[in-house]
Amino acid sequence: MKENLRKRAIEVLDANFQEGGFTIPSKGLYPFQWKWDSGFIAIGFAHYDVEKAKTEIHSLLDAQWENGFIPHIVFHSDNDSYFPGPDFHQSERHPLSSKKYRSTGMTQPPVTGFVLQEMYRIAEDKQDMLAFVKDHIDKVYANHVYFYENRDPHNEGLVYIYHNWESGTDNSPVWDDIWSTMNPPEYTFERRDTTHVDASQRPTKREYDHYLYLIDIAKEHNYDDARIAELSPFLVQDPLFNAMLIKSNEALLELYKLIGGNGDKEKTLQQWQKMSIRNFNNKLFDSELGAYVHYDLRNGKPIRFVSSSSFSPLFANIPDQERAEILVKTMMERFGGEGKYLCASFDPTNERFNPKKYWRGPVWINMNWVLYYGLKNYRFDEIAERVRQDSIALIERDGFFEYFDCRKDTGESQRTGYGGNNFSWSAALLLDLLK
Ligand code: 9YW
């Protein structure tokens, strides 16, 4: 059975690989290259086709801007099955944007550093992979320099995101209170996502108005980071985003040590790590909730909800063992009850939880992958194994969907995998979890 799943996962990935040397997340729904998808996809390819894994990362980094920024979507081709496309985003407004590719002017969680390390871990021919890492690592380092220099206005070692799409957890209930501080215009536009996926599983039209308005503000200032930090109504320090950055710092540090001769960069990485981990623990941990939470930098207050992002710091070795135990207790009490697959994307005990809607409750395989390795870091082997088995069981139950109902008994006759089907990172990370 496992062999069969493996075979199907490979078929999904290969079918989504494009001639231009990148992989789409899902046919129809997402027809371009997404930043963090690309990283997870490369991990999957590394298990059976190392050249494709390298090509994936190479093409993402090829779209890097001159200031080190890596966009969240690279529009390799014209395709009108997705909105908002390149004509809406207009990345060319930024003077240092890529001259080769049109893209968005926002980014996504910085996974590429730890992805390089994973590719090295998985590769059989270590020399060959190290040569690839050597050729590409400075670009990833430059991306981190971009973050620390442009996204950390108070020099806390905690970077901000200015759009919910930068978080990767696009319509999490965590953002709801920010939307209520805004009153965007009513945009006229044609949704494309709801032609591919049931509208009840996607954000509402009014939510999209907020998303578009944030882009318009950034565009008005030609995607200038300092102006965005001053003006964007959405300015958040996200625990998932920052945990990915910290994990990637750690990975870059280890890879540079292997390569040798990069003492200055190692030193800078160590300084970032020290400051980032300290302030992450001081600022983002909510001891009453027993979890890390988001911080609303615009309105100067924590956003006190527990989501799967709250546990991601385990992956980046951020908490000490005692705090890790508190986190896991919170996870098991709120998310891990009998009758539930781990790990819902949003607190199932909260009234904003919705088991079918996008990031408002369903299980996502990429988050489970992060949590699996995070739990293993702290020797929660049994719970890690449950996360691994649950991920496999959900894909066996529903197929290679984008997200899954966490309830074992959904009381529904229809399938309970939602969003896009034949979804790349679900396939890619399953390959890693099956190994
Ligand atoms: C959108 C591609 C992307 C992911 C995001 C996810 C979704 C795109 O799909 O956003 O248009 O809503 O939220 O994390 O990278 O898979």
How would you portray this structure in words?
The protein is mainly α and 435 residues long. The protein has a single domain (2-158, 243-293, 303-434), classed as Glycosyltransferase. It is 49% helix and 5% strand. It contains 17 helices and ten strands. It has helices at residues 2-16, 35-46, 50-62, 86-89, 112-122, 126-150, 164-167, 176-179, 193-196, 205-220, 225-231, 239-259, 263-284, 321-335, 365-377, 381-398, 424-434; strands at residues 33-34, 73-75, 102-103, 236-237, 285-286, 291-292, 294-296, 301-303, 403-404, 417-418. It has a three-stranded antiparallel beta sheet. A hairpin with a 4-residue loop joins β7 and β8 (301-303). It starts with a helix and ends with a helix.
Bound molecules: (alpha-D-glucopyranosyloxy)acetic acid
Side-by-side strand order of the widest sheet = 1-2-3
Rg is 20 Å
Work out the strand percent. 5-15%
Structural class: mainly alpha
Shape: globular
Major sheet: 3 strands, antiparallel
User: How do the SSEs run, as a string of H and E?
Assistant: HEHHEHEHHHHHHHEHHEEEEHHHEEH
Task: Please tally the β strands and state the result.
Answer: 10
Helix fraction? 40-55%
Mean of pLDDT: 96
CATH first level = Mainly Alpha
The CATH topology is what?
Glycosyltransferase
Number of helices: 17
Unreliable runs: none
